[in-house]
Amino acid sequence: MMRRLAIATAVAGALCAPAYAALTENLTTSVVAMAMGNAVTADPPGVSSIHFNPAGLARMTGDSESIHNFVASIRTSASFSPGPNFDVGGWRDDPLSNTSTGPVRQIMYVPGYGMPGWRLPAVAVPGIGMTWNKPGSPWTFGTDSYMAQAMSLDRTTDPNDPGQYQGRQLQIQRLVYAAPAVGYKYSDTLRFGVAVPIAHAAFVVDTNMRFPNELLGVFGQLQKGWCPEDGGNIIDVFGFGVCGGGKDGMVSPFKKAANMRVELTAPFDPTINLGVLWEPRDWFALGVVYQGGSKTHYTGSYMFKTEPMLRNFVRGMNASLLGPIAGAVLGFPTSIPAEQKGNMSATIPFPSHLQVGLKLKPVKYVQLNVDASYARWSEWDALRFQFDQSIKLLEVARLYGIPDSGKLVIPRGYKSVVNFAYGLQLNPFERLSIRLGYEPRKTSVPADKIDLLAPLPDTKLLSAGIGFKLNKDTDINITGSYMSGKFNAPANTSCNMNCNTFLNIIYNPYAGQDVRGDIRVRYFGFELNKRF
């Protein structure tokens, strides 16, 4: 017994290096796994083995049913203050300076229906799983439904919320609605498994847009010095028409320029999970799972609503003598509609994931799990959207080196990292299990890439749960958890959010601002398992 305890302590100590975390995986997947800090690869729990290690299915005998439900709330906030010597092309009075974001709620995407328009304090995700095993057979079959990935934000309560420029609404979800799986018992100590999760993926972004950068600021100052208040003069008419848009066509780097809404889905997107479970001793087990990724192909719709500032400016320029010539040289549109919509597509990777875990049971009533995982979030170097036509608003961006107005590339620059997780299970009584989990997640979003679309800094996930056997065929599991983290992005340090350079049009809406923020996720899960 002392030998086992020493081994458990040594292994845990060796893995207590700085931990690394991914983005949003495993937050609403399994009640038991969440309670154990998602460190269950070497001890996969019941039907949730389909996701965490399908080899665990081969440990199950007879038929069973699992009904599970999760409730999760996400709260995030940010505050803005002008950085040292704040100046955007001669403009210093940013109305967002010294403001903070307001209330955040959750939204949801219903497959086959779309966005119901509900603003929710939290999101509930029910699911059901089943397994089948004939007595004496080494084969166990199963399926499950669960949320494999989720990020949900709604900032529409306050129309003046400064967070509106990086997501009035954001919904990224991957709902596995079927996951046919099989586990095979090769021997009493070695098992294999494979699962094919079939997911419905949704990607929805609704954001207002503004473009504070040096070039736009300098041009706005030129207008202020050249154009009379009524917006025009005779010299300008025979020139380039920079004043022809009138008062509404006066350019400012701090004005709202447009609204963009994209709503994309991938209704049928299968991946594959492969697992191995080796249990040579009652007190030791090793598990490995590979969760395959996908180049998920999304299709859907878009809508751009452009404010009068750019519409009037382009109209005035094209009403002058030399403006159309300059516009043609710069690739400007002849006009910008107030609203432009159509169909679009995008290929957004769902990263592959490798996880290795140990189960150690130094004494009969104490179990320690330690996992290490690696997810390829580096595939999110940029998000690329293809539109069915040239977007007139984006034609203005040709001046900033954006050559194709039928595409939109949003840089991300995420990185692949390793994540450690720890779980402790105590069994003081035969029918009761007490579970504790700890998962320190070092973010996959580098400090120079963080923004309000992905406000995911280093976080710590703490969980606690219980399992209770009502009788020999029925048990329940209950889990609560809390994840939190903070970030600080001084001005000009994250070029996904607040860089102030000459051509940073896509996309730094808080150019020159110091941005501080945080994220908090609260989770509650309940599960009922029944064997037949």
UniProtKB/TrEMBL annotation:
A Pfam family: Toluene_X
One GO cellular component term: cell outer membrane
Location within or outside the cell: Cell outer membrane
UniProt keyword annotations, A-Z: Cell outer membrane, Membrane, Signal, Transmembrane, Transmembrane beta strand
Signal peptide annotation: 1-21
Its membrane topology: Multi-pass membrane protein
Recorded GO MF terms: long-chain fatty acid transporting porin activity
SUPFAM superfamilies linked: Porins
Family in the record: Belongs to the OmpP1/FadL family.
PANTHER family, per database record: OUTER MEMBRANE PROTEIN NMB0088-RELATED
Protein name: Long-chain fatty acid transport protein
